[in-house]
Amino acid sequence: MKVLHTADWHLGQRILHNERQVEHQRALDWLMSVIRREKIELLLVAGDVFDIGNPPNYARRMYYRFLTQLIGTSCRHIVITGGNHDSPAMLNAPRELLLALNVHVVGEATERIEDEIIELHGAEGQLEAVVAAVPFLRDKDIRQSIAGESSLERIERIKAGIRQHYRTIGEAVLPYAERGVPLIATGHLFAKGAEAGEHQNNIYIGNRENIDGSEFPSIFDYIALGHLHRAQIVNQDYRIHYSGSLIPLSFSELDDQKVVKIIQFEGRQLVEGVRSVAVRECRKLRRIGGELTEVEEKLRTLHTEISEDELPAWVEVQVQTDRLRPNLDGHLRDFAEDLRLVLLKVRTNQSYRALDQQVATLDLDDLSPGEVFRQRCSSAGQAPTELAELERTFEELQNWLQEEEAP
Ligand SMILES: [Mn+2]
To answer: Looking at residues 290-303, what average pLDDT do you find?
Structure first.
């Protein structure tokens, strides 16, 4: 059984108001070519297919077109699980229809753990693999809320609930242990022993380290994770991997090599370990800073690195300057246009302004909601001792909004 593991597509995502449609389409086309070339038999998508609960129509079309293109390829089984960005209802809506195409969708956890256990059968009806398709586990899936409990107690309960969910599903696959077929689990969470990107903004402190890597049941031969956008192995355990996202979803992911994971099983054994296949980059995202002349020089250099078949690079620029420069933005954008570069954002350090006005200018786009909240609390004279608890409550509120409304 040859398996391809990917996650965190975030179809419909935008970066600083710019659509990623062309990039996503190219990434999916590339993925299709890999599935064909490698003769993949099972495709796992471990959550966050879409960026928002109500994605634009083009993003839905892209998703369904991709699934349709899999018909007639070597890829006989597809398992898709919901992430925290997906709307479970939206993902589950075409479930029965997709099942007719061998696409198994688990948008959310239900009360029956059996709903997450997927037996994959070959053309002759023989068992080929078992997937414990665990989606993103929402607060409501794993515990009853308890009045009057502090946010820290709540976090501990969520963690205990997640651990319990995996223990239960590990026990539920025990009957398959001797069948000689791969036993695979999925997950969409933050496993301890993994690193998030610097500013991956969909992970809150309250969600940190939902489970320790060692707490995944040892019965599973491979654990396909999503949620962290950086591809990595968890706890040095050769069985537990994040595939990472398919394209860089923010400027903080610039240094990550985007990949998909390919796993070849013989019975329950991994052959050749887990292979990372680099996603073909179709647009460069760069952050460039320095004095104006330096910035111009770096933009020229970047221009030379863009190949013919790539889309114009997207650049964020920070200019160091000690004086006011009227129309700096317009000047740099004109400069970049001839170089097949698009400046998504031009910033200045503005130290000259702070000197006479003592005003530090902040851009809302650069701040996370948590940072805005913290600054607001500080300016309202909130005592630092109470700030920590307030911040946790705010995070809880954000999590709740994200889970309930999947923005
Ligand atoms: Mn996620």
So the answer is: 93
* Confidence at 352, pLDDT banded by 50, 70, 90: low
Rounded to 5°, the CA angle 182-117-195 comes to 70
CA of 51 to the centre of ligand 1 (A): 9
CA of 270 to the centre of ligand 1 (A): 27
For ligand 1, the distance from its centroid to the CA atom of residue 47, given in whole angstroms, is 7
Q: To 10 degrees, what angle do helices 21-38 and 57-69 make? A: 10
155: CA distance to ligand 1 center in Å?
A: 18
In whole angstroms, give the CA distance from residue 66 to residue 68.
5
Q: Which of 310, 254, 311 is nearest to 287 (CA)?
A: 254
CA distance 232 to 28: 21
Q: What domains are defined for the chain? A: 2-278 (3.60.21.10), 294-354 (no CATH), 362-407 (no CATH)
What are the pLDDT digits (tens) for 50-74? 999 999 999 999 999 999 999 999 9
Report the separation in Å between the CA atom of 201 and the middle of ligand 1, taken as the mean of its atom positions.
10
Q: Residue 120 corresponds to which tokens in the numbers above?
A: 């994959």
Look up the pTM and report it: 0.85
Residue 159 CA to ligand 1 centre (angstroms): 17
Under a CB-based contact definition with an 8 Å cutoff, are residues 321 and 292 in contact? yes
Q: How far is the CA of 338 from the centre of ligand 1 (A)?
A: 37
190 vs 88: CA distance, rounded Å: 19
Task: Name the one residue in this structure whose structure tokens are 């995944």.
Answer: 216
